Amino acid sequence: MLIRTITNEFIPQEFVDFFQSGLHNLSSQFSTQLTVVIEEFRGKSKNQVFEAAEAYLGTKATLSVQRVKASKSETDKELSFGVDRDQEVNDDFEGVKVRWKFKCQHAESSTNRDYLRDLNASLRSEVRHYELSFHKKHKEEIFNSYLPYVMERAKAIKNESRAVKLRTIEYRDHWNTEGVNFVHPMTFKTLAIDEELKRDVVNDLDKFVKGKEFYKNTGKAWKRGYLLHGPPGTGKSSLIAAMSNYLNYDIYDLDLTVVEQNNELKNLILGMSNRSILVIEDIDCTIKLQNREENKEAVNDGVKKVTLSGLLNAIDGLWSCCGEERIIVFTTNHIERLDPALLRPGRMDMPLHLSYCNFSAFKQLAFNYLGISQHKLFQEIEGLLREVQVTAAEIAGELTNIAGSKECLQDIVKFLRDKKMPKGLTETDQNVIQGGDELK
Ligand SMILES: Nc1ncnc2c1ncn2[C@@H]1O[C@H](COP(=O)(O)OP(=O)(O)OP(=O)(O)O)[C@@H](O)[C@H]1O
Ligand SMILES: [Mg+2]
């Protein structure tokens, strides 16, 4: 204070400024720290590094700062957090220490106001930026590895927190733009299908999402097709919900009966976003399957309808030139009714047979509904499930109806025994019924 008073009193201001800036230059020459300034806007558009820093630091903020900002928009699944002004966040990247600081300046000074007016952002009352500081010797690592890592993490964070949307056709050739939030509770943790099949699907999806380089190097379109087939109530639609929740991909539910012509179909396919699942349920019922003539519409009762080949060609063609990370799922209860064109390798990458409930699927249901992994009746149930064709939906229904105690497994045994041999039927009659069902 004393020195400042003396200098203010006795030394000319120009000399003080000159001296201070010289001192600043000198200290920055000897400083070991480098600071990167990341402003909110780049020209008139948002700076992507700023946005990435915002998302990335949000996940760190709750750990290390004293003031955090909390927010949630309609399309977010969960609360998101952010660093408040002047707060610092320390981070560690492969042993390199970095420090982030969030700075806001009020747009009082005329330069700031001009700057904001330039940005056409008159509602904003402040200029915001992040400062990222680290030791100069780590410059290369920070620029070449850390910042790209922050950008990549931010992308994943934003995607994870985004609510999945379900879109249906609004009018023939376009999707409902808003969509609805898809909040199906089914996940791979609760889905009751054969354990091995579940593992295969999860591994396949993991490989697919990590396959960017593979698809680029091989020149293949980054897409994957699954054909889910099996009797009603075996979990086909539940599996699609689990896939969507696992990948956080939007679902486009394509009702082919609404689409009149192949060019409408093309518009729908073009209107889909990346990282999405196109679902066509009950393919055997909704599409004219027998017409194999490429690119032709089948004339059905005087109305042009899309054909299977039209559908597959449109997907193959359009997705190879525009669109990444796309999944297509067909479902059917009757695989034998499908055109062999659909089953040819390369069309549907992975056929998945969802069959009647086996013991591994049953154990999952018992865990979901009763919270148990073991029981003295399990052995008998395992034996019965080998003989009785019962769907996961039926068992789930029984478990919902009967009291939620461990004792109710006795009722499941009774249910399975009754199913094995309904009153008044001999075992031979029952076999005929079950065999016939598969052939339907
Ligand atoms: N594998 C499963 N795991 C957990 N729940 C299941 C499973 N399969 C069926 N369910 C239950 O049964 C209901 C019907 O199943 P889902 O709609 O997935 O069957 P689906 O195979 O799609 O049948 P459909 O061929 O009739 O469309 C679901 O709402 C779910 O509660
Ligand atoms: Mg279904």
Structure description:
The structure is a single chain. By secondary structure, the protein is an alpha/beta fold. The protein has four domains: 1-27; 32-161, no CATH class; 165-353, P-loop containing nucleotide triphosphate hydrolases (Rossmann fold, 3-Layer(aba) Sandwich); 359-439, no CATH class. It has helices at residues 2-10, 13-30, 48-64, 110-118, 139-161, 195-209, 212-218, 236-247, 262-270, 283-286, 308-321, 340-343, 359-370, 378-387, 392-401, 409-420, 427-439, and strands at residues 33-39, 41-42, 45-46, 68-71, 80-83, 88-93, 96-106, 126-135, 165-171, 174-175, 180-181, 223-229, 250-253, 276-280, 298-300, 303-305, 326-332, 350-353. It is globular, with a radius of gyration of 31 Å. The model is unreliable at 289-298 and 426-440 (pLDDT under 50). It binds adenosine-5'-triphosphate and magnesium ion (MG). Residues 191-193, 232-238, 333, 354, 361, 392-393, 396 line the site of adenosine-5'-triphosphate.
- Helix and strand content put the structural class at alpha/beta
Query: What's the level 1 CATH class of the largest domain?
Result: Alpha Beta
- State which percent range the strand residues make up: 15-25%
Main beta sheet, described?
A: 8 strands, mixed
How many DSSP H or I helices? Answer: 17
- Proper CATH architecture of the largest domain: 3-Layer(aba) Sandwich
**CATH fold category name of the largest domain:** Rossmann fold
Overall 3D shape: globular
Number of strands: 18
Counting structural domains, the number is 4
